[in-house]
Specification:
The chain contains no helices and eleven strands. It is globular. The protein is an all-beta fold.
Length: about 120
């Protein structure tokens, strides 16, 4: 069973940075694609960024050039470095995992709140 533990959320001023961490437990880390999602109040959850086992990444247009996703195979950890934060980045951020053989993210962390003040 996969377990995901996020940390690093908090409050930041616009223009500042935060880094989120997601530690992966329970299965072989290299067999999973990891994604960061976010959900703002009243909005649908959206995919922010994802990274494959081989290190290929993709980011949403809204965060491209500001957010960077990376993974550390030694520590079974995925990071989301968030720079130049904007108030519209305020949301609960979730780490999620999907096995390389499946198209759907079916393992989720508990979420961590990110609040950006103007």
């Amino acid at each position: 069973q996969v377990e995901l533990a996020e940390s690093g959320g908090g409050t930041a001023q616009a223009g500042h940075s935060l880094r989120l961490s997601c530690v992966f437990y329970g299965r072989t880390f290299s067999n999973y694609v990891i994604g960061w999602f976010r959900q703002a109040p009243g909005k649908e959850r959206e995919l922010v960024a994802e990274i494959t086992s081989g290190g290929s990444t993709s980011e949403a247009d809204s965060v491209k050039g500001r957010f960077t996703i990376s993974r550390d195979h030694l520590g079974n950890t995925v990071y989301l470095q968030m720079n130049s934060l904007k108030p519209e980045d305020t949301a609960v951020y979730y780490c999620a995992a999907k096995h390389i053989s499946t198209p759907i993210y079916d393992n989720w962390g508990q979420g961590t709140q990110v609040t950006v003040s103007s």
